[in-house]
What does this fold into?
Amino acid sequence: MASQIIREWAGINTFAPATQTKLLELLGKLKQENVNTLTILVMGKGGVGKSSTVNSIIGERVVSINPFTSEGPRPVMVSRTRAGFTLNIIDTPGLIEGGYVNDIALELIKRFLLNKTIDVLLYVDRLDAYRVDELDKLIAKAITNTFGKEIWNKAVLALTHAQFTPPDGLPYDEFFSKRSEALLKIVRSAAQIKKDFPLASSVPVVLIENSGRCHKNDNDEKILPNGTAWIPHLVETITEITLNKHASIHVDKKLIEGPNPNERGKLWIPLIFALQYFLVMKPIQGFIKRDIAEQSRPSWERQRETGYRRRDFS
Ligand code: GDP
Ligand code: MG
It folds into this structure.
Protein backbone atom coordinates (compact mmCIF):
# COMPACT_ATOMS: atom_id res chain seq x y z
CA MET A 1 0.00 0.00 0.00
CA ALA A 2 1.37 3.42 -0.93
CA SER A 3 2.22 5.48 2.09
CA GLN A 4 -0.14 8.35 2.67
CA ILE A 5 1.25 11.84 2.12
CA ILE A 6 0.68 13.79 5.30
CA ARG A 7 -0.32 17.40 4.86
CA GLU A 8 1.58 20.31 6.35
CA TRP A 9 0.06 21.67 9.59
CA ALA A 10 -0.91 24.95 7.93
CA GLY A 11 -3.73 25.65 10.37
CA ILE A 12 -1.15 26.64 12.99
CA ASN A 13 -0.68 29.88 11.00
CA THR A 14 -4.28 30.86 11.75
CA PHE A 15 -3.50 31.16 15.47
CA ALA A 16 -2.45 34.42 17.08
CA PRO A 17 1.35 34.95 16.76
CA ALA A 18 1.82 34.51 20.54
CA THR A 19 -0.03 31.17 20.41
CA GLN A 20 2.01 30.07 17.38
CA THR A 21 5.28 30.84 19.17
CA LYS A 22 4.24 28.81 22.23
CA LEU A 23 3.08 25.87 20.13
CA LEU A 24 6.32 25.76 18.16
CA GLU A 25 8.23 25.90 21.45
CA LEU A 26 6.27 22.90 22.72
CA LEU A 27 6.86 20.94 19.50
CA GLY A 28 10.57 21.75 19.89
CA LYS A 29 10.45 20.37 23.45
CA LEU A 30 8.90 17.13 22.21
CA LYS A 31 11.47 16.77 19.43
CA GLN A 32 14.25 17.39 21.94
CA GLU A 33 12.97 14.33 23.82
CA ASN A 34 12.97 12.37 20.55
CA VAL A 35 9.21 12.44 20.22
CA ASN A 36 8.58 13.04 16.51
CA THR A 37 5.06 11.68 16.35
CA LEU A 38 2.18 12.35 18.70
CA THR A 39 -1.12 10.50 18.51
CA ILE A 40 -4.07 11.88 20.43
CA LEU A 41 -7.25 9.84 20.85
CA VAL A 42 -10.36 11.94 21.45
CA MET A 43 -13.24 10.20 23.23
CA GLY A 44 -16.40 11.10 25.10
CA LYS A 45 -20.17 11.22 24.86
CA GLY A 46 -21.88 12.50 21.71
CA GLY A 47 -22.33 16.25 21.33
CA VAL A 48 -19.82 17.31 23.98
CA GLY A 49 -17.52 19.02 21.46
CA LYS A 50 -15.01 16.32 20.45
CA SER A 51 -15.00 17.18 16.74
CA SER A 52 -14.98 20.92 17.43
CA THR A 53 -11.93 20.41 19.67
CA VAL A 54 -10.13 18.50 16.90
CA ASN A 55 -10.83 21.41 14.53
CA SER A 56 -9.66 23.93 17.15
CA ILE A 57 -6.33 22.13 17.66
CA ILE A 58 -5.64 21.62 13.96
CA GLY A 59 -6.77 25.17 13.19
CA GLU A 60 -8.87 24.05 10.25
CA ARG A 61 -12.32 22.58 9.81
CA VAL A 62 -11.10 19.04 9.23
CA VAL A 63 -13.93 17.02 10.76
CA SER A 64 -17.61 17.77 10.63
CA ILE A 65 -19.49 19.02 13.64
CA ASN A 66 -23.16 18.64 14.16
CA PRO A 67 -25.35 20.03 16.91
CA PHE A 68 -28.38 17.84 16.33
CA THR A 69 -27.69 14.52 14.67
CA SER A 70 -25.40 11.81 15.97
CA GLU A 71 -21.94 11.59 14.43
CA GLY A 72 -20.74 9.26 11.71
CA PRO A 73 -20.17 5.77 13.01
CA ARG A 74 -16.47 5.61 12.24
CA PRO A 75 -13.39 7.15 13.82
CA VAL A 76 -11.38 9.56 11.67
CA MET A 77 -7.66 10.24 11.96
CA VAL A 78 -6.35 13.64 10.94
CA SER A 79 -2.58 13.95 10.46
CA ARG A 80 -0.48 17.07 10.01
CA THR A 81 3.28 17.66 9.95
CA ARG A 82 5.30 20.64 11.00
CA ALA A 83 9.09 20.88 10.96
CA GLY A 84 9.55 17.10 10.93
CA PHE A 85 6.95 16.56 13.63
CA THR A 86 3.73 14.62 12.96
CA LEU A 87 0.52 15.20 14.88
CA ASN A 88 -2.23 12.59 14.60
CA ILE A 89 -5.63 13.26 16.13
CA ILE A 90 -8.27 10.55 16.13
CA ASP A 91 -11.85 11.81 16.38
CA THR A 92 -14.33 9.15 17.45
CA PRO A 93 -18.10 8.80 17.44
CA GLY A 94 -19.90 9.42 20.74
CA LEU A 95 -19.77 6.40 23.01
CA ILE A 96 -23.22 6.87 24.47
CA GLU A 97 -26.37 6.47 22.46
CA GLY A 98 -29.92 6.01 23.64
CA GLY A 99 -28.77 5.74 27.23
CA TYR A 100 -26.27 2.94 26.65
CA VAL A 101 -22.64 2.54 25.69
CA ASN A 102 -22.68 2.18 21.92
CA ASP A 103 -20.95 -1.19 21.61
CA ILE A 104 -20.81 -0.99 17.81
CA ALA A 105 -19.00 2.36 17.98
CA LEU A 106 -16.64 0.94 20.61
CA GLU A 107 -15.92 -2.09 18.45
CA LEU A 108 -15.21 0.13 15.41
CA ILE A 109 -12.90 2.32 17.50
CA LYS A 110 -10.98 -0.75 18.70
CA ARG A 111 -10.57 -2.10 15.16
CA PHE A 112 -9.52 1.33 13.91
CA LEU A 113 -6.86 1.63 16.60
CA LEU A 114 -5.31 -1.78 15.92
CA ASN A 115 -1.50 -1.43 15.67
CA LYS A 116 -1.64 2.25 16.60
CA THR A 117 -0.07 3.76 19.69
CA ILE A 118 -2.01 6.23 21.81
CA ASP A 119 0.20 8.86 23.40
CA VAL A 120 -2.62 10.87 24.92
CA LEU A 121 -6.30 10.23 25.57
CA LEU A 122 -8.30 13.44 25.42
CA TYR A 123 -11.42 12.60 27.38
CA VAL A 124 -13.94 15.29 26.52
CA ASP A 125 -16.99 16.45 28.45
CA ARG A 126 -18.72 19.79 28.98
CA LEU A 127 -17.88 22.22 31.74
CA ASP A 128 -21.39 23.64 31.81
CA ALA A 129 -23.11 20.58 33.22
CA TYR A 130 -24.04 20.08 36.83
CA ARG A 131 -24.32 16.40 37.47
CA VAL A 132 -22.48 13.24 36.70
CA ASP A 133 -24.64 10.19 36.17
CA GLU A 134 -24.67 6.48 35.43
CA LEU A 135 -23.75 7.12 31.78
CA ASP A 136 -20.55 8.89 32.77
CA LYS A 137 -19.66 5.84 34.84
CA LEU A 138 -20.47 3.49 31.96
CA ILE A 139 -18.31 5.38 29.50
CA ALA A 140 -15.30 5.60 31.85
CA LYS A 141 -15.69 1.87 32.55
CA ALA A 142 -15.88 1.07 28.84
CA ILE A 143 -12.64 2.98 28.22
CA THR A 144 -10.94 1.19 31.13
CA ASN A 145 -12.15 -2.23 29.95
CA THR A 146 -11.00 -1.55 26.40
CA PHE A 147 -7.51 -0.17 27.00
CA GLY A 148 -6.70 -1.17 30.58
CA LYS A 149 -6.55 1.23 33.50
CA GLU A 150 -3.08 2.41 32.43
CA ILE A 151 -4.82 4.52 29.79
CA TRP A 152 -5.69 7.00 32.57
CA ASN A 153 -1.96 7.65 33.08
CA LYS A 154 -2.04 9.11 29.58
CA ALA A 155 -5.33 10.97 29.91
CA VAL A 156 -6.29 14.62 29.89
CA LEU A 157 -9.81 15.60 30.92
CA ALA A 158 -10.93 18.35 28.56
CA LEU A 159 -13.98 20.43 29.44
CA THR A 160 -15.60 22.35 26.59
CA HIS A 161 -18.06 25.28 26.67
CA ALA A 162 -15.67 26.91 29.12
CA GLN A 163 -16.83 30.46 28.35
CA PHE A 164 -19.66 30.15 30.77
CA THR A 165 -21.02 31.88 33.83
CA PRO A 166 -21.66 29.48 36.73
CA PRO A 167 -25.11 29.58 38.36
CA ASP A 168 -25.98 31.22 41.68
CA GLY A 169 -23.02 33.58 41.57
CA LEU A 170 -20.60 30.69 42.17
CA PRO A 171 -17.02 31.81 41.41
CA TYR A 172 -15.74 30.39 38.09
CA ASP A 173 -12.74 28.59 39.59
CA GLU A 174 -14.85 27.04 42.33
CA PHE A 175 -17.37 25.72 39.80
CA PHE A 176 -14.52 24.41 37.64
CA SER A 177 -12.88 22.54 40.50
CA LYS A 178 -16.21 21.06 41.68
CA ARG A 179 -17.10 19.88 38.17
CA SER A 180 -13.61 18.42 37.57
CA GLU A 181 -13.56 16.65 40.92
CA ALA A 182 -16.97 15.05 40.26
CA LEU A 183 -15.74 13.70 36.90
CA LEU A 184 -12.36 12.57 38.23
CA LYS A 185 -14.11 10.68 41.02
CA ILE A 186 -15.93 8.69 38.34
CA VAL A 187 -12.68 8.02 36.49
CA ARG A 188 -11.06 6.81 39.71
CA SER A 189 -13.92 4.44 40.48
CA ALA A 190 -14.21 3.19 36.88
CA ALA A 191 -10.51 2.41 36.82
CA GLN A 192 -10.77 0.85 40.31
CA ILE A 193 -8.07 3.16 41.48
CA LYS A 194 -7.40 3.24 45.19
CA LYS A 195 -7.17 6.72 46.64
CA ASP A 196 -3.50 6.24 47.53
CA PHE A 197 -2.61 5.02 44.03
CA PRO A 198 -1.02 7.91 42.13
CA LEU A 199 -2.86 7.06 38.91
CA ALA A 200 -5.80 9.26 37.85
CA SER A 201 -5.57 11.44 40.92
CA SER A 202 -3.14 13.16 38.60
CA VAL A 203 -5.32 13.30 35.47
CA PRO A 204 -4.99 16.97 34.50
CA VAL A 205 -8.07 18.97 33.60
CA VAL A 206 -8.04 21.58 30.84
CA LEU A 207 -10.67 24.03 29.70
CA ILE A 208 -11.68 24.59 26.09
CA GLU A 209 -13.87 27.11 24.31
CA ASN A 210 -14.50 26.12 20.72
CA SER A 211 -16.99 28.87 19.96
CA GLY A 212 -16.03 31.53 17.41
CA ARG A 213 -17.19 34.03 20.01
CA CYS A 214 -14.42 33.05 22.42
CA HIS A 215 -12.95 36.16 24.06
CA LYS A 216 -9.42 37.23 23.16
CA ASN A 217 -6.63 38.98 25.05
CA ASP A 218 -4.55 41.94 23.82
CA ASN A 219 -2.30 39.49 21.95
CA ASP A 220 -5.35 38.23 20.05
CA GLU A 221 -5.14 34.86 21.82
CA LYS A 222 -8.37 33.03 22.68
CA ILE A 223 -8.85 33.22 26.44
CA LEU A 224 -11.11 31.76 29.11
CA PRO A 225 -13.03 33.76 31.72
CA ASN A 226 -10.06 33.19 34.10
CA GLY A 227 -7.69 34.81 31.58
CA THR A 228 -5.87 31.61 30.46
CA ALA A 229 -4.97 31.35 26.77
CA TRP A 230 -6.47 27.92 26.37
CA ILE A 231 -4.82 26.56 23.18
CA PRO A 232 -1.23 26.85 24.47
CA HIS A 233 -2.36 25.54 27.87
CA LEU A 234 -4.03 22.51 26.25
CA VAL A 235 -0.98 21.74 24.09
CA GLU A 236 1.35 22.23 27.06
CA THR A 237 -0.69 19.74 29.12
CA ILE A 238 -0.68 17.27 26.22
CA THR A 239 3.12 17.66 26.01
CA GLU A 240 3.53 16.97 29.74
CA ILE A 241 1.39 13.84 29.56
CA THR A 242 3.30 12.64 26.50
CA LEU A 243 6.60 13.05 28.30
CA ASN A 244 5.52 11.62 31.68
CA LYS A 245 7.14 8.42 32.92
CA HIS A 246 4.29 6.18 31.78
CA ALA A 247 4.44 4.29 28.50
CA SER A 248 2.08 5.10 25.64
CA ILE A 249 -0.66 2.56 25.03
CA HIS A 250 0.02 0.29 22.09
CA VAL A 251 -3.16 -1.25 20.75
CA ASP A 252 -2.49 -4.79 19.62
CA LYS A 253 -4.73 -7.80 18.99
CA LYS A 254 -4.22 -9.07 22.52
CA LEU A 255 -5.35 -5.78 24.03
CA ILE A 256 -8.52 -5.44 22.00
CA GLU A 257 -9.57 -9.07 22.09
CA GLY A 258 -8.79 -9.66 25.75
CA PRO A 259 -7.81 -13.19 26.81
CA ASN A 260 -7.97 -15.72 23.96
CA PRO A 261 -11.55 -17.05 23.99
CA ASN A 262 -10.21 -20.56 23.28
CA GLU A 263 -8.10 -20.45 26.40
CA ARG A 264 -10.84 -19.04 28.58
CA GLY A 265 -12.32 -21.62 30.93
CA LYS A 266 -9.98 -24.44 29.84
CA LEU A 267 -9.26 -25.35 33.46
CA TRP A 268 -12.93 -26.09 34.09
CA ILE A 269 -13.13 -28.82 31.45
CA PRO A 270 -11.87 -31.79 33.63
CA LEU A 271 -14.13 -30.71 36.49
CA ILE A 272 -17.15 -30.52 34.20
CA PHE A 273 -16.34 -34.01 32.86
CA ALA A 274 -16.04 -35.39 36.39
CA LEU A 275 -19.34 -33.82 37.44
CA GLN A 276 -20.99 -35.13 34.29
CA TYR A 277 -19.69 -38.64 35.08
CA PHE A 278 -20.89 -38.73 38.67
CA LEU A 279 -24.13 -36.81 38.32
CA VAL A 280 -25.36 -38.02 34.92
CA MET A 281 -23.52 -41.09 33.65
CA LYS A 282 -23.41 -43.00 36.95
CA PRO A 283 -27.12 -42.68 37.75
CA ILE A 284 -28.01 -43.62 34.15
CA GLN A 285 -25.71 -46.67 34.30
CA GLY A 286 -27.34 -47.77 37.56
CA PHE A 287 -30.78 -47.30 36.08
CA ILE A 288 -29.90 -49.36 32.99
CA LYS A 289 -28.35 -52.15 35.10
CA ARG A 290 -31.46 -52.35 37.26
CA ASP A 291 -33.64 -52.43 34.17
CA ILE A 292 -31.60 -55.26 32.61
CA ALA A 293 -31.79 -57.27 35.81
CA GLU A 294 -35.53 -56.71 35.84
CA GLN A 295 -35.95 -57.68 32.19
CA SER A 296 -33.97 -60.93 32.65
CA ARG A 297 -36.59 -62.33 35.15
CA PRO A 298 -39.51 -64.32 33.62
CA SER A 299 -42.58 -62.24 32.94
CA TRP A 300 -44.93 -64.31 35.19
CA GLU A 301 -42.64 -63.53 38.15
CA ARG A 302 -42.72 -59.78 37.44
CA GLN A 303 -46.49 -59.82 36.89
CA ARG A 304 -47.08 -61.72 40.11
CA GLU A 305 -44.97 -59.23 42.01
CA THR A 306 -46.86 -56.29 40.55
CA GLY A 307 -50.10 -58.11 41.33
CA TYR A 308 -49.11 -58.62 44.93
CA ARG A 309 -48.02 -55.02 45.16
CA ARG A 310 -51.31 -53.88 43.75
CA ARG A 311 -53.12 -55.94 46.26
CA ASP A 312 -50.93 -54.60 49.04
CA PHE A 313 -51.93 -51.06 48.16
CA SER A 314 -55.59 -51.80 47.81
P1 GDP B 1 -19.16 15.89 19.25
O1 GDP B 1 -20.44 15.16 18.98
O2 GDP B 1 -18.64 15.56 20.62
O3 GDP B 1 -18.14 15.71 18.19
O4 GDP B 1 -19.55 17.45 19.32
P2 GDP B 1 -19.42 18.56 18.18
O5 GDP B 1 -18.01 19.04 18.10
O6 GDP B 1 -20.06 18.08 16.93
O7 GDP B 1 -20.25 19.75 18.84
C1 GDP B 1 -21.64 19.67 19.10
C2 GDP B 1 -22.20 21.09 19.17
O8 GDP B 1 -21.64 21.80 20.25
C3 GDP B 1 -21.91 21.93 17.91
O9 GDP B 1 -23.01 22.72 17.64
C4 GDP B 1 -20.73 22.78 18.33
O10 GDP B 1 -20.71 24.03 17.65
C5 GDP B 1 -21.01 23.01 19.80
N1 GDP B 1 -19.79 23.18 20.58
C6 GDP B 1 -18.74 22.33 20.67
N2 GDP B 1 -17.80 22.79 21.51
C7 GDP B 1 -18.25 23.99 21.97
C8 GDP B 1 -17.72 24.97 22.87
O11 GDP B 1 -16.63 24.83 23.44
N3 GDP B 1 -18.50 26.08 23.09
C9 GDP B 1 -19.71 26.26 22.50
N4 GDP B 1 -20.37 27.38 22.77
N5 GDP B 1 -20.23 25.37 21.64
C10 GDP B 1 -19.51 24.23 21.37
MG1 MG C 1 -18.10 14.52 16.50
